[in-house]
Amino acid sequence: MSSVFILIIFLFLHSFTSQDKFQKERESMVKNQIENRGIKDKSVLNAMRKVLRHEMVPSNVVNRAYTDGPLPIGYGQTISQPYIVAFMTEATNPKPEHKVLEIGTGSGYQAAVLAEIAKEVYTIEIVNELYKSADKKLNELGYKNIFCKAADGYYGWEEHAPFDAIVVTAAAEHIPPPLVEQLKDGGKMIIPVGAPFLNQNLILVEKKGEEVTTRSLLPVRFVPFTREK
After folding, report:
1. Are 151 and 176 in contact (CB under 8 A)?
2. Alpha-carbon span 100 to 18, nearest angstrom
3. Long-range contacts of range 6-13, CB-CB < 8 Å, 24 or more positions apart?
4. Which pTM does this prediction carry?
5. Would you state the CATH architecture of domain 3-220?
């Protein structure tokens, strides 16, 4: 048996073992971190099982990809704790026919989870380096229904509005009026609101006709909502 053939077999087995390991870690993450904490929506649970979180974190933290907490992704930003991603997704109740806006692409993980459920996901990232890396990674992973843009997310993405759901993944000191305007009648937005680097509240915004209501769901801590200078 040639050394080249042996090497090919070794690489195949190594790849298979690694993927199997990550699959088990994803299953454990969904069961212990998400399902056991009360997330019940089957489409959300399936999306969390499917999205390859280990592909969307820096190489130096791949071994922690499925742990119960946020992870640094560079430029002062983080990938959110898996439970929080699932919680925010379930709270906005995306459906297969929905168009969703995300503010704060980051690594692309939340966008990928949403894209497993919704028809289209529009995501905005202000840090140009993160926008480029997330856009590249999402394309490599085969997500054809995610559309990325580098911009100040405060103003949303007006040309594609209105949106059935809006997910904001950075803490704002107030709810941006342009995002409320771009929310469809009957739509939901989830956004952390509060002072930077302190405890914030995850706020659910619901729009029904001319009436807009807000409800505090959960204390959280997110990186600040970055604006253009």
Report:
1. no
2. 33
3. none
4. 0.89
5. 3-Layer(aba) Sandwich (3.40)
